[in-house]
Amino acid sequence: MTSLSIIVPLYNERESLPEFCESLFAALKSSELKRCFGDEFSFEIIMVDDGSTDGSDKVIGELMTDRPELRLISFRRNYGKTEALSAGFRAASGEVVVTIDADMQDDPREIAGLVLKINEGFDLVSGWKRERNDPMSKTVPSKLFNLTTRLFSGIPLHDFNCGLKAYSRELVASLDLHGEMHRYIPVLAKWKGFRVTEIPVMHHARKFGKSKFGASRFLPGLFDFLSVMFITRYLKRPMHFFGMMSLGSFFFGFCISLYVTIEKYLFDKPAGNRPILFLGILLIILGVQFFSTGLLGELLSTRPSRNGGWSIRKTANLPDEIIDRLTD
Ligand code: UDP
Ligand code: MG
């Protein structure tokens, strides 16, 4: 048996909602899902209205009348897609959780394929919009984003930010999202040791309204990137980051100083008044600075924490209170 929670983050998507709901219900009640997951298969749909001002919540209210599976969480204001997903994750009670955008760009008929992959043992199955139906102003930055994320994270996915994804219950319980981190969920999941994969999915052009993520999101996106790549990764071990910077800086500073010294004593070239010497000294000082910053960071991060940031797959023969202590 499989129970599904479908999470739908939405912000000002009034026009799309009736048709979207229609197609989502059609896909979830299709014989294909029953065939894949048996007659006991059940689902809930959690619509998270991220502070819409166009009356989206009223439309959902109307759609709820003859659809008991539909639930609604309405934010007081627009907090962003990450927070909307986060609220949905907390409210979800299904064994498998699926996220899908409300603008009909994602195709609900892909849900079965994603969930089958989760049942194979993956924790995150991400959609790969192989043929993306968006204008160049979106596809080009997106390609760049995927390339850099792939390079820096070492995770071989093509499409990190597809709205259509399926999650295991364990992964949902361990995700701690904030800011704009929804784009990096596969990275965070993989770093925690979860099994991540992707499958190609259909993608449609936007029919109503317009995208909420335009070129103006480039800089915030870049900062999120730096934040996830560095802060999230090195938060627990600042010395791993600053130590590397310190070693690099110190090494080059040392080489330059050595070079100047050798030139002075072997070839009698005066050491003073040479810009390269200043660079060498600067790099050595920077090296010391990076080292002390790392040390400080290390001291701060070793203050008592409840959980070391780990994620446990299984425990055996441990009493519940100990497990609580480990996972709290
Ligand atoms: N969304 C949201 N909060 C926001 C921005 C977007 O919940 O602050 C929702 C939006 O309504 C849609 C999904 O996130 O259901 C993806 O947004 P959009 O279609 O604008 O992104 P794109 O497909 O253009 O990348
Ligand atoms: Mg969209």
Automatic annotation (TrEMBL):
<dbReference type="InterPro" id="IPR050256">
    <property type="entry name" value="Glycosyltransferase_2"/>
</dbReference>
<keyword id="KW-1133">Transmembrane helix</keyword>
<keyword id="KW-0328">Glycosyltransferase</keyword>
<protein>
    <submittedName>
        <fullName>Glycosyl transferase</fullName>
    </submittedName>
</protein>
<feature type="transmembrane region" description="Helical">
    <location>
        <begin position="242"/>
        <end position="262"/>
    </location>
</feature>
<dbReference type="InterPro" id="IPR001173">
    <property type="entry name" value="Glyco_trans_2-like"/>
</dbReference>
<keyword id="KW-0812">Transmembrane</keyword>
<keyword id="KW-1003">Cell membrane</keyword>
<keyword id="KW-0472">Membrane</keyword>
<dbReference type="Pfam" id="PF00535">
    <property type="entry name" value="Glycos_transf_2"/>
</dbReference>
<dbReference type="GO" id="GO:0005886">
    <property type="term" value="C:plasma membrane"/>
</dbReference>
<keyword id="KW-0448">Lipopolysaccharide biosynthesis</keyword>
<keyword id="KW-0808">Transferase</keyword>
<feature type="transmembrane region" description="Helical">
    <location>
        <begin position="274"/>
        <end position="296"/>
    </location>
</feature>
<dbReference type="GO" id="GO:0099621">
    <property type="term" value="F:undecaprenyl-phosphate 4-deoxy-4-formamido-L-arabinose transferase activity"/>
</dbReference>
<dbReference type="GO" id="GO:0009103">
    <property type="term" value="P:lipopolysaccharide biosynthetic process"/>
</dbReference>
<dbReference type="InterPro" id="IPR029044">
    <property type="entry name" value="Nucleotide-diphossugar_trans"/>
</dbReference>
<feature type="domain" description="Glycosyltransferase 2-like">
    <location>
        <begin position="5"/>
        <end position="172"/>
    </location>
</feature>
